[in-house]
Amino acid sequence: MAEQTPPYWLLISVLFSSQPLTPALAMTLHEAAYELYSRGEGSREVAGDLLSGRVTNLRKEMALGGIAGPAFEAEIETERGSGTVRFMLTRQGLEMMKDQTPATPARPKYLN
Question: Which domain of life is it from (predicted)?
Answer without folding.
Answer: Bacteria
